[in-house]
Structures are given as C-alpha cells and as structure tokens.
Design goal:
This protein is 53% helix and 0% strand. It is mainly alpha-helical and 174 residues long. It has 2 domains: 5-91, no CATH class; 101-173, no CATH class.
Amino acid sequence: MEPIKGGTLARLPEEAAAAFNAYYQDQKTLPSQASLAIRYAASLSEVEIVLSGMSDLSQLDDNTAYMQDFKPLTEEEKELVEKITTILNRTIKVPCTSCRYCMEECPIQVNIPEYFGLLNLFAVTGKKTNMYYQRYSMNHAKASECLKCGRCEKICPQHIPIRKFLDEFAELYE
C-alpha cells in the first residue's frame, strides 16, 4: 500500500511523530517516517525483499536513498518502533488503511473507509462530525443499511471485523 500501510505509517499521529523526531533529532537530516517502517520490515531475518507502493517521485527518491546503503535497525530503533506501535494501537480504533477494496465488494456501496475514518477521529478527539457523515452518505448507503453479507470482510487485507465496527458507527452517528 502506498506508502506503508496505506500511508498510516508515513504520516504518524502527533504523539508518535514527536517520539520519532526526538529520537532522530541529532541527525543532520531527519529520515522519513516511512523509512523506519520499511527498514523494520527489511531488518527481519526471514525477509528477502521489501516492496513499497509509491505514488510520486519523492517517495521513490526516499525509498532508494536509504535502501542503497541499507542499515538494519539498531536495538534502540527497534525500541522506538515498539514505542510508536504502542502509541498507534492506543490512538487508532479501526486499523483501516482506506484501500477501498471493501467498497469494490459492497453490493450497496456503504462508504466503509470514510465511516471508519470518522470513527477513528471520534476515538482520538471525542468529537462527532455529523456534517462529514451527511456528506459521505449522500451518494452511499448509510452504515445501518449494511446487508451483513460479509463480502467486505473476506477481501479486507487488514482482516477488520467490518460489520462489527459499522454497527458501532451506526450506533454513534445514527
């Protein structure tokens, strides 16, 4: 997914980004957040090839820059990854990357990624954004209209229990 879990690990939440920046503050050039995730995967002993989706030239330049002279993660960087993982797990309710594969399978076009984005925003801020829900549901089925067919869950690369979270979302927003 482009880059790193649909961008989730390339644009860290504020607290996780602060930990990342603090760790690398003494370096001349701050590495990209995406580089830590790719280097993590490439540092695993059983991994031989790491593929990263890229959507523009700057992402290609970034990937090739730190992979040309690849250095596995240090023990301290592995601890940083654990710290960031803890922060992410605490702040992200639904691990949706907005890949939209679920939308391809949904027979009534429930706007799953956008609804999950609102659910995550509520989990972090405690604020409901009804205006966005109204906009997202204008041309798509509402969360409560889900047929519970499960086709979306079969194709979800994150193995998210989509129907469960749609029920939770509908309870909150409808």
